[in-house]
Request: fold
Amino acid sequence: MTAPPIIRAQGLTRRFKVKKGQVDAVRGLDVEVAAGEVVAFLGPNGAGKTTSMRMLSTLLPPSSGTAEVAGHDVVAAPQEVRLRIGYLGQGTSGGHNHLVRDELYTQGRFHGMSRGEAKRRAGEVAEAFDLTGLAKRRVGTLSGGQRRRVDVAMALVHRPGLLFLDEPSAGLDPQGRAALWELLRGLRADLGTTIFFCTHHLEEADRFADRVLVIDGGRVIADDTPARLKADQAGDRVLLTTRDTTTAVTAAAIARQLPGVRNATVEGKRVTVHASQGDTALPDLIRALDAAGAAPRSADLRRPSLDDVFLGLTGKSMREDAA
Amino acid sequence: MNLVRDSGTAFAREFVPEVRAPVVLLFNAMTPLLFIGLFGPLLVSSGMGTASSWQWFLPGILVLLALSGTAGSGATLVGEAKSGAFERMLVTPMNRQAILIGRTLKEVVTLVAQGVLLIALLLPTDFTVHPVGALAGLLLLAFFGLGVGVLSFTLALVSKRNENVFYGVQQTLFFPLLLLSGVLLPMDQAPGWLYTVSRFNPVSYVVEAERSLFAGRVLEWTTLWGVLVCAGLAAIGLTVGTRTIRNTTA
Reply:
């Protein structure tokens, strides 16, 4: 597979002028995404996620650096890029006073479809997103979740090969979110659509992304599969409870000697053992402790979440952020 | 992408909701309707103007329609820039100018439709319709609306999602342009200095041209000045607007 990447950004920066000088929102973004990949773009608020996405989707010219998206330079040939991408912003795409049906149709026309084709596609996406019953409603009268469905439907009307989704599931309930991802996965399976998305729901990134990019302070600080990020950045934890505090200290010392164990910390009678693969480390650990007469009273395995990774990398919790 | 085709699409997007709820058209014409209903009778009883006060008053009201309605139309674009609807259009390959032109044309059609509505309302009075003059008057109104509309949308783009900036500028311009145009009372009865100031207001020439057209006097110098002002306004609006939207990054 030597297909060129569908997104290739090199040293992308964006500087905003503000009252007191300037802000470097993005400071040297290097990203490569292969066609067909599903990539999650994570970072705390103000990390530069939206600014980066806007540069990649031709909405904002970069201050420096280059980006090729869908085979074309975002600055030199924005029209070519726009023909090939779908974009879902954080706002509401549909006009307040416009009917859902009309907006879906108009969006197809804006993408150069004939009247008949635009009408047909509007019907198709309305069906796919369960919007048929809302077709004659004005966008302004819809609930937040319904509006979001209209937004996504509009971004897909022209069957783009590459989708930029800025918080696609914001305002959706768990059911709506599941339905959205089922659709996106279908799209990728059927058409090989590449999906590049930001989200505040880390479990969404964990479940659906092939790869996670973590951005902080305008730079990518981690780039890997969710599984490897969790193993490398956070690792598993085995929580042991021992009979007394002396045993706890002994147990920690023994644990540190075992292969695959990174560290062990003591807190009263409790020992926390950090291991990259907790499931395989656990039986060895118990046997070793038992042999030394320091058998634990209970043992619990904790797998890391992307939130642990995120906290470790940025020092900020995504969950507080999302509130 | 194709300018004409995309302008058509942008026009249709704005126009279709209007057709679906024509009542909105009437609401938008509220200011001039109030003037016709509440100020017009005063004008008639005070015996201002010539043979028919309506004959004198209506052309000014048509210009007022453009100043109060069309000039404010950019507010819809400020709203869509805030909501995300404008951004979504900017990511499509549609022609940038078409965004501006399609919306402006919808405002022009609305303006002319309101003009026709007002004329129809005045038919039962002693208002006389000179067919050629009235048609030319509506055509000139359309050109005036084109310039005012495109400038309004340009102001919306420059306002960058801030309604306060948009309305601040629009309202600041509205009253001087209105009061110095002779829409409400004849400017030639004004004190010398005020009359002189009014000569610097382009809207004065449009009002005078409309008056002469609706009086059935088509081939006059007054008409020419009005046409020149409207053409100039449209040319400036389209040039500045095009440059602005090409540099707009949402």
